[in-house]
């Protein structure tokens, strides 16, 4: 496993790409409403990336066709934007994207409720997934382990009766979208790779309302919950510094 340690100057470059990702996501969020298609979200993201002069990180990655992943309801990750997929009141949609600026990647995801009819159970799923990400980030500091981070995420999720997806994990990030190490959203404290100052990782809990099992559809990309339960996804790119975690997105 080759862990890439970033200099403070490289982390500053990643902060720039991270801020652009955040701005793109906040722009796309405004288009999430009943009647919008996931292709409308894609088009909004493309427009914003062009405005920043940012290169999309996902489009063309292993043949992926779009700049966003838009995963609706029981879709966990890697849903492909489409004019046919129209959002309805009460849906949830995970929006995951990344950009490259000055050779460095930023990667982040949010899950947004559609319309005003948000079922309390759905709101809880979103709140708990966000809280689990925050808990994982709080566990980050030099000398902590990836097991500490994964356990911090897992404990928040399972305490509320939800489950952590195990088939997909977070990852190191830098001059490539996916670098070592893999960053599971579950684990045991004190186990796994030790974190070092200068590491940058993308932490991305995917949390199911039902069981953790997922399957990939025939398009070769879209992952869905096996039991049809809803799934939420939040992600930040985070640098490990002497002071602890610094969120770059």
From TrEMBL:
Example GO molecular function: initiator methionyl aminopeptidase activity
Source organism (scientific name): Silvibacterium bohemicum
Job of this protein: Removes the N-terminal methionine from nascent proteins. The N-terminal methionine is often cleaved when the second residue in the primary sequence is small and uncharged (Met-Ala-, Cys, Gly, Pro, Ser, Thr, or Val). Requires deformylation of the N(alpha)-formylated initiator methionine before it can be hydrolyzed.
Cofactor(s) listed: Co(2+); Zn(2+); Mn(2+); Fe(2+)
A biological process from GO: proteolysis
Co-factor: note: Binds 2 divalent metal cations per subunit. Has a high-affinity and a low affinity metal-binding site. The true nature of the physiological cofactor is under debate. The enzyme is active with cobalt, zinc, manganese or divalent iron ions. Most likely, methionine aminopeptidases function as mononuclear Fe(2+)-metalloproteases under physiological conditions, and the catalytically relevant metal-binding site has been assigned to the histidine-containing high-affinity site.
GO-annotated cellular components: cytosol
Assigned protein family: Belongs to the peptidase M24A family. Methionine aminopeptidase type 1 subfamily.
Binding site for a divalent metal cation 1: 96, 107, 235
Positions of substrate binding: 78, 178
InterPro entries (alphabetical): Creatinase/aminopeptidase-like, Pept_M24, Pept_M24_MAP, Pept_M24A_MAP1
Positions bound to a divalent metal cation 2: 107, 171, 204, 235
Catalytic activity: Release of N-terminal amino acids, preferentially methionine, from peptides and arylamides
Protein known as: Methionine aminopeptidase
Domain Peptidase M24: 12-242
E.C. no: 3.4.11.18
Keyword field: Aminopeptidase, Hydrolase, Metal-binding, Protease
Subunit structure, interactors included: Monomer.
